[in-house]
Structures are given as C-alpha cells and as structure tokens.
Design a protein that fits this description.
By secondary structure, the protein is of the alpha/beta class. It has three domains: 224 residues, Rossmann fold, CATH 3.40.50.1460; 150 residues; 91 residues, no CATH class. Helices cover 36% and strands 19% of the residues. It has a six-stranded mixed β-sheet with strand order 4-1-5-9-10-11, with helices on both faces. Strands 12, 13, 14, 16, 17 and 18 form a six-stranded mixed β-sheet that branches. The radius of gyration is 27 Å and the shape is globular. It starts with a strand and ends with a strand.
C-alpha cells in the first residue's frame, strides 16, 4: 500500500510589527522532521514574507497533483477579520484590517487549493490561535479573538491549537504547548488521525491546566494514520512471516523443513536443505512460507553457506520454473532480511554481506515488484538513507584527495553528496590529536568503491563516483581514515 504524502510547513516568528515569537520556527522545524519520518515529502518555509507565502502555496499546489494526502501546517500569528481567518506573514501590513488581510495568506485560499487537488485526504493544522497583536491599532471587539471556525470540504480536517474564538500562548519551552503535544502523539503507530488528535487534546489540557483546549473540524471520508506499523502497511504477508521469530514450523511440510535447517546456522544442515529446496517444493509452498524461506536463504548466505550463496547468485535460474508471485515471495523475503530483524523492526546495522549480489538483481525488469515492495517497507525510514533502496535512484558523489607519498596513492580528504561533505568520524577512539593526521588504511580502488557503496547502502550499479583530484585508471590506492564513514547520520 504505497502512500504519496505531501506537506507544506510554515513557521513565522520574526514579525516586523508584532515582535518576535519564540516558538514558531522551532515548531515548524520539529513538525517537518516528524512528518518526514512518517513518509511525507516536506517543504519547510521559515519567516516568510507575504510574497514568499504566496509562492510557497503555488509550489504546494503543484506538488499536490502527485499526492494522495496533503498536509498544511502553520505556526505563527493568525488573525480573524470579518469572520475570515488570515495567516500573518512577517511583513503583514497592520495599518488596518483591509491592509492586513490583503498582505496575509487567507486560510480559505489554502483550503481551496487543497480541495481542488482532489486528494483522498487534506489536513490543515494551525498553531496560530495567539491573540491578535494588531487589534490595539484597530477598532475591534473581543468577539474577534483567536480564529473563526471554517467550512471543511469533504475529505478535509482542520485542526486548531485552541477552541474557536479563544487564544493560546506562545509557550515557554522550545515548542508551543499545542505543537509540543502534537509532537508527542503524531507518530504513534496505528493510531487514527481522529484518535491522535484526541490524545493531543488531553495532553494539551493537562499541560495548560485546562486553559487551552484544542479543536478540530473534520469531514474526512476515510481512515488516515500518520504512522502505520509494518504489519498494518504490508498486507501481502502474515505478521508471523514479517516477524519470523513467531513463525511456527510444521515439519510435515517440505518448505518448513528447509526453514528449520536454514535456521540452524550449521553448514552441514543448511547446504543439503538448499539442495532439497527444489522447484517442486517451492511450488507447493504458501506465499508466507516462501517469504520466510527467502529470509533464511539470505541469512545463510551472509553466514557463508555455499548452497545459499549459490542460490542467491543464481536466483534467476533457480527460480525459473516458479510462478511470478512465488518468485516474488522468495525475493521479497531476501530483501526484507537485509533491513528488518526477527521482530520486523528496522535493524540498527543492516545485513550488508551479500547486499551487492542481491541488489544486482534489480537490473532484471521482471523482478521490479520485489524492489517496489522493499522500497515501500522502507519509506517511513527515509531519513536513514541517501536514496531509498529499491527505488532505483542513481547516486553521484564527488571524492577529493591529496597525493600520497607514492605514485597512484591518494589520501582521502572528503566525499561530497548533494554539495555536503558526508565523510565523518563514527568511532571516536580513532580521533586524532589536534594538528595530527588520522591513521589510515590502504584500499584498492575497487575496495574503496565497494566500501562507499556499502556504507551509503547504494547498489554498485547505481553509484557513480567522480574523482576531482585524479583521472581514474583502476590501479590507484586510496588511504582511508580508520573509524570514519559515509554512513547516513
């Protein structure tokens, strides 16, 4: 179940005519990070002028065309003029109500843009219910405090930091009270959006002694979860296959006997089991059994079982007699084993021993559904990767070196991806004293490139390395500092 999630997050704090707010920039940055961890593609805009807010909405409108769910978050000053709500830019003209509303972003415009995109769900979250800082310049009644309730088109939820007509404080910590509560609950696994906002309301009420009660107006037509657990998102395999430590082996089944042998970590049982895993046995196995067999073949291959290695490197021929869905289940299991532990949790350290051999299969178009599967599994953890494995995205890096003492020897200085140096010291035990060079090991060019591909979790065929300091001949030696890595921080 692939979800295309798009968000625009705006935080305005440095107001020209209303003083500086403490929290909105932090609120926006923290919400953006939380949304990205839930699989959203997030555009973050901070301290926007009126023109910049209009440009951001225009870009958001375009992005929504390729989305299933759109989300808009705003932290900053919101004002109510004649029953309509406006989100203040840092340069909003506050001379009077007319000037203010024409130099702010109308909430109705946001709603209209999201409604016209025709996404399955549209979510608007406003931590913008602070007291109108401009009212003292205008002749306004107390009935215009806070923000007004709005019409929510079908499929839309509008969430306010406090009840209509009420106001919220900016907060004394890093985040406003509402955003702080939202950050606590937004990524709760398998919690519907309605339930999540109820939890936010309870936390917020407790934190403010009942003075601030959040409020939502919703016309959502379907269910939405910010964070769906793997078992909830992946419906192709049973939870006992994804969490294969719970898989019950029935030794009356041939495929289960293979699984049992592969789990022993004993080559003298693993290798015969692989030989016994014939096309006939695979054809008679369920999808879940094949998935677990695939997991254990990859595990055995990483343990240097000759039979498992042969199966992996000859996957296309060994599975040529299977139906596409049977072949897919086997490969899905192998790919899953790289990244997920027996509890179906993302591994802290991925199983990379046979990663390049396995992902070399990505070059076969018939196997694309399996790589789409693993990409979907990994999407909520996009922050762990430079490029989501399985998506087939090419990665280009630039390497800078200085000349070594010997010909064709080069001392690694930096590795750049998207303009940033991604080489960093992972093991502080290898940190050199100030003014001293780190201790280095010599790697052949092939070993160096293999290490970079492994650390970046990028298939070799998708990684291009450009050397700024020399023309690659293939016989160069790279002096790599001990304890350093290009792993995603």
């Amino acid at each position: 179940m692939s979800r295309r999630l798009t968000a625009l997050v705006i935080g305005n704090a440095d107001y020209v005519d209303a003083g500086e707010l403490k929290n909105p920039v932090n609120d926006a940055a923290d919400i953006a990070a939380k949304l990205a961890a839930c699989g959203f593609t997030v555009a973050t805009r901070l301290n926007c002028s009126h023109r910049q807010m209009d440009e951001a909405i225009k870009d958001f409108k375009g992005a929504l065309n390729d989305s299933d769910v759109g989300l808009f978050f705003f932290a900053g000053h919101g004002i109510q003029v004649d029953g309509d709500n406006y989100l203040a830019a840092v340069d909003t003209d506050v001379a009077d109500e007319i000037a203010a509303k024409h130099s702010s972003l109308a909430l109705n415009k946001v709603i209209e843009v999201m409604e016209k995109a025709d996404n399955a769900s549209s979510i608007i979250i406003l931590d913008a219910c602070r007291n109108n800082p401009f009212a003292r310049r205008w002749s306004r009644s107390m009935s215009s405090r806070g923000l007004a309730p709005v019409y929510a088109p079908r499929g839309t939820l509008v969430a306010y930091a406090t009840s209509p007509g009420q106001v919220a404080s900016d907060g004394s910590g890093r985040n406003g009270a509402y955003t702080a509560a939202l950050l606590q609950h937004l990524a709760t696994p398998d919690c519907s959006i309605e339930s999540m906002f109820k939890r936010v309301r309870n936390t917020l009420s407790t934190a403010t002694g009942g003075k601030q009660i959040s409020w939502e107006h919703t016309s959502l037509a379907g269910d939405f979860y910010f964070n769906m657990s793997l078992g909830a998102r992946i419906d192709e395999y049973a939870d006992t296959s994804l969490r294969d430590k719970l898989f019950v082996v029935d030794d009356r089944k041939a495929s289960h006997r293979v699984i049992e042998a592969l789990k022993t970590h004993d080559w003298y049982r693993q290798n015969p089991a692989i030989r016994e895993f014939t096309t006939e046995v695979a054809r008679g196995a369920s999808q879940d059994s094949l998935f677990v067999v695939g997991r254990n073949i990859y595990q055995a291959a990483c343990g240097w079982s000759i039979g498992a290695n042969f199966y992996l490197t000859n996957f296309m021929s060994r599975t040529s007699g299977l139906k596409p869905e049977q072949r897919k289940a086997l490969l899905d299991g192998m790919l899953f084993e790289v990244f997920f532990d027996p509890d179906a949790r993302l591994r802290q350290d991925f199983k990379m021993t046979k990663f390049q051999d396995l992902f070399g299969l990505q070059q076969h178009p018939d196997l694309k559904p399996s790589f789409d599967f693993i990409a979907e599994c990994l999407l909520p953890d996009i922050a762990r990767f430079y490029a989501i494995p399985g998506k087939g995205h090419a990665v280009v890096i630039d390497v800078t070196t200085t000349a070594g003492a010997k010909s064709d020897n080069h001392v690694l200085k930096s590795v750049h991806y998207d303009g940033d140096d991604i080489l960093w010291i992972e093991d502080s035990d290898y940190a050199s004293e100030p003014g001293e060079e780190p201790i280095r090991e010599k790697l052949s060019l092939a070993d160096f490139e293999g290490r970079i591909a492994e650390q970046m979790v990028v298939p070799a065929q998708l990684l291009t390395i450009k050397y700024a300091s020399f023309s690659k001949a293939g016989n160069e030696m790279i002096h790599f500092p001990y304890g350093w890595t290009t792993r995603k921080q």
